[in-house]
Amino acid sequence: MTDALLQALLFQAGYNAALVSLGAALLGLAAGAVGAFTTLRRRALTSDAMAHATLPGIGIAFLLMTAAGGDGRSLPILLVGAGLSAVLGLVLLQRLTDTTRLTEDTATGAILSSFYGAGVVLLTVIQNLSIGRPAGLEGFLLGSTAGMLRADALLIAGGGAVILGLLALLRRPLAMTAFDPAHARLMGVNTRAADMALLLLTLACVLLGLRVVGLILIVALLITPALTARLWSNRIGVVALLAGAIGAVAGHVGAALSFALPDLPTGPAIVLITFTAFLASVLLAPGRGVIARALARVRLARGLRKGGARA
Hints:
mainly alpha; ABC transporter involved in vitamin B12 uptake, BtuC; cell membrane; ABC_TroCD
């Protein structure tokens, strides 16, 4: 197991394993960096609803492909269906918050549960219809790299690189909008366009992550590295870089662990690694960590006692 893990970590476990590790690392890098802006803008729940709203689109895209004579397993078309379904969910979410008295979190819960339930029902129907090749569709729930093809890994890696490039171009308006939308508008930033760009980047991360970590866990890959990085810095640029690095390491190590332990799913392994990094940061981060705060309280108490003794 140790030798297999070391080989996977050093990209020496074969071409396919190296490709999957690279794709997972680039996905983690992109998701972590985008998540830094998503959490700062307080859109974590929106990204969760977006992820769950992809499931009906996957089922509908599969049915359309099989109706056209295919086997329904084309990942790009499945992702297009997932994306359209997620956009529909976002539109309905916006309409609910604009035209009713529902708060955003309540409307998000309604969209999340409704779309997810519809998707599960649709996938169950597909399994019973015995058409096409539905085996593996359930992998979009928790992720599945075992059946990933070379073209799938290249799509994920290329998509992650494009997301990073767009994020680098848009980082200034995104940061200004996240920190202070009113001031950003005074400075000439189109905050509505910036928010839309952030939603689209988040959606892109969600779609790419469906194959690796699944729709249930992709939100953890978007949020946990960002929360971890926030414990180490207050500067958005540093937080984005740190979050991306944590996500990249988690993606690579999680894929390597999945290769060394074939029964270990890649998605949960990646999420557990990011959570481990979060727990370690909660304890060890300077200034905000539990240990640092405890030491600060001890120093303060000593200072107060010394001041009282002098008095």
